[in-house]
Design brief:
Strand order of the largest sheet: 3-2-1-4-5
Radius of gyration: 14 Å
Helix content: 25-40%
Largest sheet: 5 strands, mixed
Structural class: alpha+beta
Strand content: 35-45%
Order of helices and strands: EEEHEEH
Length: 80
């Protein structure tokens, strides 16, 4: 099952939330929040944990979803 990471509006800014960490990350700009969420998802995937980033609009509608499948780490160990 993929780890869920959400980017949601919070007041005048944006928050990145997930069950994988206690404190949400806060951003003034939605683009910065999305970039942080996607970077976090890529880091989890590189360590073998699939992750899904869900981006929500200010009205609560789902704007987009990005899936980051777990990396097959053993492929990275093969010499070129």
């Amino acid at each position: 099952m993929a780890l869920k990471i959400s980017v949601i509006p919070l007041g005048e800014g944006w928050a990145v939330r997930s069950s994988s960490f206690e404190n949400e990350m806060l951003f003034a700009a939605g683009a910065k929040a999305e970039a942080a969420a996607r970077d976090l998802a890529l880091r989890y995937a590189a360590r073998g944990q699939s992750a899904e980033v869900a981006i929500f609009l200010r009205d609560g509608a789902l704007a987009g979803r990005f899936l980051h499948p777990a990396s097959a780490g053993w492929l990275d160990q093969i010499p070129a």
